[in-house]
Structure formats: C-alpha cells, structure tokens
Write a structure and sequence with these properties.
Blueprint: H1 6-19, H2 25-32, H3 41-53, H4 62-70, E1 75-76, E2 83-85, E3 92-93, H5 95-112, E4 116-120, E5 143-147, H6 152-167, E6 171-176, E7 181-186, H7 188-199, E8 207-211, H8 218-224, H9 229-236, E9 248-252
Parallel strand pairs: 2-4
Antiparallel strand pairs: 1-3, 4-5, 5-7, 6-7, 8-9
C-alpha cells in the first residue's frame, strides 16, 4: 500500500481549509499525511482529538448507550443493501457512520461480489475486549470494525478505498490481525462535507470509480471512459503511469 505523497498532503491541507476551516487543519490534515493502514500512536492521537473536537462522550455502559440511542445521538443499524452485521451486542453508531456503511456496502458488493461484514460499532468502555486499546474511540460511536475478506479482490478494493479516504482526511483506518479486520474511525463533520461535495458535483465534475483489471493501462482506461491520462493522474495523485490489479481509481468523465 502506498503512503500519501507530498502532493497529496498539500491537497489534504487545501481541502481542510476549504471545507473544515483553519481549526481543523492541524487536527486532520497533517497527521493523515504520515498514515497508512499499519496504525500508529499518531493515528490514535488524531482519532481522540477529533472525538474531542466533536464533543463526543466516551460511553461507559450499555444503559448509557441506550440513552444515546433514545435521544438520537446514536442510530441503530440493521443491515441493508450490500452489508450485514455479525456478532454484535451494540448495533449502534453515529448517524454519519450509518451513512458511511450504507454507501460503502453496495459499492463493495458491486466491486467484488461479497457483502461487506461489519463486526463492531459502538462498544461501551466496560464492554471492550481485552486486547482493545485503552484509547479506543469505539465508545464514542464514531468507529467500526469491518471484516477482512479472504477474497483478494475484496481486500484490495477495500484497502484502496480506505487509503484514499484517509488521504482525504475523513477517516483513519488500521489493518488489524487478531481477528483479521479493518478498524475504521470516521470523522463525522469531515465526512459530511466530503459527501456534500460529491453530491454537489456538477456535470463538468462527473466522476466514476473503476477497479483496475489485469492488462489495464492508464491509456486503455482513459480511452474506455472518454477522458485522458492526465485527468486520471490528477484525480488520483499519480506521479507516473504505474497501476496495479485491484486498485480503485477515480475516473473523471467529460459530459
């Protein structure tokens, strides 16, 4: 997996200024530039700072979690198009997390033929597993665990998406080994702004997502979608022409 390039870091800072205000630049943009799916202390620092910026409570008990649900701070997820919940005692999350899963699930299934499996959402501090970090943001409702598939195409697609969204400053993701899953901490305000920008894209900003197949080149992808190589490079912060099978690309199309 590739880390964010210097050029990407500059773009994240610019996006932070445009969508979140200067107060968010230090919190969101700078640490994200050094992150990958390996996880780090800096990643945990960032997740906790964002939780503090949003004024989130670290829920301690199941009764407190139900109070947050009853008062609309958390919503219940029941599974839906492209995703399902597994072995979960607290199927609740922040509304933005529910939106994220409802958007990601159908895209994931369309990309690799499997349903996305969510294995954890809000976990009160008194219900955390033994191997959980004491600084986990699961108790705030802004985090989720996604099962890591045995299907290589599914893993590649999901990792590519998480890296891209991490580079955009809307989440932090970590590849965990025991059990194999992806821990994802979503930044609600930043993700809302990201979705609004996507929904507001005009006809001249139309773009689609494409999974690289064996034998593809940037030239063949550009020709197939009625665009050119330079536009694809710019949309994906590519310095050269090297791409790999299973990679997720944003392909701008002229209308």
């Amino acid at each position: 997996m590739r880390l964010a390039t210097t050029r990407q870091c500059g773009r994240v800072r610019a996006a932070g200024a445009a969508f979140f205000g200067l107060a968010f630049i230090a919190v969101v943009a700078a640490p994200a530039c050094a992150q990958s799916l390996k996880g780090s202390k800096n990643s945990l620092d960032l997740q906790n700072r964002v939780a503090t910026e949003h004024g989130f409570t670290y829920i301690r008990t199941s009764d407190q979690a139900r109070w947050f649900v009853d008062n609309g701070y958390l919503v219940r997820l029941r599974g839906g198009a492209g995703y399902e919940l597994k072995r979960m005692s607290h199927p609740y999350a922040r509304p933005e997390v529910a939106l994220f899963v409802s958007r990601l699930g159908p895209q994931y299934q369309a990309a690799c033929g499997e349903r996305l499996v969510v294995t954890s959402l809000t976990r009160p501090t008194t219900r955390q597993p033994r191997n959980a970090s004491s600084r986990s943001v699961h108790p705030t409702g802004m985090a989720m665990d996604l099962r890591r598939s045995n299907n290589r195409a599914c893993r590649s697609w999901l990792e590519s998406v998480l890296l891209r969204l991490e580079g955009a400053g809307v989440l932090e993701a970590t590849r965990e080994r025991s059990p194999p899953h992806f821990h994802v901490a979503l930044f609600p305000s930043q993700y809302d702004a990201y979705v609004d920008r996507k929904m507001a894209a005009g006809p001249d900003e139309t773009e689609r997502e494409y999974i690289v197949r064996r034998g593809d080149s940037l030239w063949s992808i550009a020709r197939r979608h009625g665009t050119d190589v330079s536009h694809i490079r710019e949309a994906n912060d590519l310095r050269g022409s090297r791409i790999y099978e299973g990679q997720l690309l944003t392909v701008p199309t002229d209308r």
